[in-house]
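Figure-free illustration: sequence to structure, shown twice.
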Amino acid sequence: MVEEFQPGSGLSRREFCMRVRSWVGAACVLLMLVSSLTPAVMAEEVSADRALVRWLARKDPRSTVRTDAVVALVSPLGEPAVSEFLATGYDYAVRRAADAKVRNLDFAKRVLATHRPEFSPAVFEASRRAVQGTDADREAFVRTGYAAAQNSDRSAREAAGEHARAIAETDRAFVRALAVNDPGAQVRGAAVWATRPGAGDGDLVEFYVHGWVSGGRLDLDSHRARAADNDMAWRATARRLVAEATEAEQAAREAAGEAAEQARQAAARAWRTVADQTTPARTAWGEAERVALAQAENWRLVAAAAAGATSPNWQAIAGSAAGNESEWMAEQTTAAEQAAYWKALYEQALAGEKEMTR
C-alpha cells in the first residue's frame, strides 16, 4: 500500500486535515442513520462497508481511489471515516483519477504489471523508468515511449524467430476460439485482432506474449471500476431513502388519532421504496459473482493448458493465468459479501414495511 502514496496520487497535509474535519461531521450522520437498525443489521452494514473499502484499497485500478481508501481505513476515527469515504470521498477520488498525471501513472503501472522482462524487456524497462520517474517522464512514455518499446521488443522477437517458429495450428485455433468465447471483452478484442484477415504469425506471437495478459488485466480493471461506481451510486440513494423511511417511521410512532394511520401508511411506503431500490444492486452483484466465477474457471483452464507447454508463447501466459484465476476468485468473494449487504438491507426494509402495516 505504501507505494500508492506518490506525488500526483495522494493527499496533501492540508487536504488530509480537511478530510479529518469532514469525518467528524460524518460521525453524526452515521449515528442518525444507524439508530433505527437492529444490532444484526448494524453489524452487517459496518462489516460490508469496511469490506468494500478494503477491496477498493487493494484492487481499484485507480491509484487515487486506492490511496484515499487506505487513508479512511487507517483513520483513528474508525467507522465514521469509512462511512465518509463511501459518502463523498470516493467521488472526489474518482474525479482526481481523471487528471492526466494520475492517468499516466496508472497506465505506466498497468504496463509494468503486464509485461514480463524475459519476454518484453524494452517495455518492462521503459515502464519501470516511467513509474519511478517524473510526471514528464510518464507523459513521454504514454505519448511515444510505450509504442517505441513495443516496436523494439517485436523487432527483437522477429529477428530471433523463436516465437514465430513455435506457433502451431493448435495455437491459431485456440486464439480463434478465444475471439468468440472468452468471457472478457478486451481479451476477445485482442484475439480478434490477432486472427484478423491478413494477420500473420507475428500477430499471434504478440497476442501470446503480451496482448492476452494485457487484455485480461483490462477486463479485470473494468469489472472492478464498473462495480464500484455503480455501488456507490446505489449506496448514495439508499442512504437517503433509509433516512427518509426512518424519519417517517418516527413520525408515525409519535402521531395520534387519524393522523397516526396516515403516517403509518406513509412510513410503510417509504420502507417499500427502500426495498425496491435494492433490486438493481442485488441483481448486479449476483451477476458480478457469476462473471467472476466464469472468469476464474476460464483462467484455470488456461493455466492448465500452459502448465505443460514448452512453447515460449505459452510460457509467456503461464504465470499470469494462475494469478488471474486467483484475482477472479477474490472478486467472487467480494461480490458475495456485497450481495449479502444488499440482501440484509432489503430484509430490513421489508421488516420496516411490515411493522408499519400491522
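We now fold a second protein in the same way, so the two outputs can be compared directly.
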Amino acid sequence: MKAYKFPSQYTPVDVLTDTTNDNPDKLFRILFCVCDFIKMVSMAAYGKSIQFAREKKQIFNSGFTNIEFHNDKIIFYDKVQKLEEAYDLSTMTIQGFCEFLTDNEYCNKDIFLPFIEDTEYEKVLKVSLSQLHALYAYLGAPSVSTQHGVKGEGHNNVCFIAEDSTRNPIVYMYEFFQLLCAEDINLTDFQNFYYDYVSEIKSINLTYLKPAKTYKAHEGEYLQYAQYIKNKYKDNKYFLFCQQKYYDKYLGNPNSTNAKDCFKSTKIQGILWAYKLFYVGCSRAKENLVIVIDENKIAPFRKEFIKRMTAIGFDVNGI
C-alpha cells in the first residue's frame, strides 16, 4: 500500500505487528479489536468480552451486547459461537469476514465500507482470513517470548553493537542497560508483567482521549483507571522503572496529552525487546564477545554500568 511505502513514517511491519490502538492503520485496529473479543470468548470470559464490546461501541453494534434477560444471554452465546465458527473458516477472506460481521450485526453498519470502496485495500481484503488468524495468534504468543530455548547459529567471535531503534520493533537498549544496573531482573517476570499490563490497557476504551473536548467529558473515568493501575503495580519493579513517572504526571496534571502518554506500553515493549536482543546476541558467542556501547548514553549511570558488566564477567575498557 502506498501509505506505508518509503518515505512514510510507518511500514507494513508497523501495521502487521501492532495489535494496540497505536496501530497506524484503522482497518487493522478494528480487525485486531475483533480478534481480541474472539479471544476473550474462546476463553469463556463472557462478562469481560461484553464489557469490552460495550466500551468499543464505535466498532461493535450495541444490540449485540444488549443483555437484559436470561434469554438475551442464550442469544448472545449462540451468536458468539457462530462468530468463532466463522473466524475458523479456512475458505473465508478478510472481506468476507468483514461483511459477515456487519450483516450479522456484530459490528456497526458500514464500518468496513470505506475500506471495501478503497482500491488501496483491494489486495488486503482478498487475503484469506486464516492468515489474519495465524498472525494474531503469533503476535499473541507474544512478540517477546522467552529465549531460553532459542536455537541459533553460534560464532566464535561476536560483536554486539548496542543501539536504540524507534522503528518497529522499537528497541530501548540503553534504558534496558539502566534497568539492568538498577534492579535484579528476570526475563520471565518481566514478560509476565508486560502481558498483564497490556491486558489491562486493552480493557480501557481509549477512543475518548482526543480531541481534548471529548477527553474532558470522560476525564473522571481515565483518572480512575490510572489510579487503579498505579495501585495494582505499586510494588512492581518493572512498572516503577518504565511507567510510574507517566502515571504520576497524569494524576498530578490531568489532560489528554498526559493521559495518552500514561496508557501506553511502548516503553515496556521497547525495553523488553532490548532484553531479548541482548540475550540472543550474547548467547551466539562461542569464544569471544565484544559489546560496543555509546559511552555518552550510559554517562548518567556510568559507574553502575561498569560495576554490573564486571559482575556479569565482562572486561570493561574505554569508558
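Summary for the second example: The chain has 17 helices and two strands.
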